[in-house]
């Protein structure tokens, strides 16, 4: 299996935190060296582990934001 890499480039918003310190966050993440995308998922306190999440391109995220404004 190939190596999986990620880099959190920007922490934008903490949506919630559980009693074990895991945070559900909106971040900008680069996956395997690709340009960063908007991402919502849970992260362990040291950011070494992650839960399932959803990733958006810039265009997808902008569409989501625009729809909430209407």
Describe this structure in words.
It is a single chain. The chain has a single domain, classed as Transcriptional Co-activator pc4, Chain A, CATH 2.30.31.70. The protein has one helix at 58-69, and strands at 6-17, 23-31, 37-43, 50-56. It is an alpha+beta fold and 70 residues long. A hairpin with a 6-residue loop joins strand 3 and strand 4. The longest helix has 12 residues, at 58-69. It is built from one helix and four strands; from the N terminus they run ββββα. It starts with 5 loop residues before the first strand and ends with a helix.
Could you write a compact summary of the structure shown?
One of its GO terms (biological process) is regulation of DNA-templated transcription. By secondary structure, the protein is an alpha+beta fold. It is 17% helix and 50% strand.
Blueprint (SSEs and pairs):
Elements: E1 6-17, E2 23-31, E3 37-43, E4 50-56, H1 58-69
Antiparallel strand pairs: 1-2, 2-3, 3-4
């Amino acid at each position: 299996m190939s190596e999986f890499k990620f880099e959190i480039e920007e922490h934008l918003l903490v949506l919630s935190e559980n009693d074990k310190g895991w945070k559900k966050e909106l971040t900008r993440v680069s996956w395997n060296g690709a340009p960063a995308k908007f991402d919502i998922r849970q992260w362990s306190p040291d950011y070494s582990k992650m839960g399932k999440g959803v990733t958006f391109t810039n265009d997808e995220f902008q569409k989501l934001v625009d729809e909430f404004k209407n």
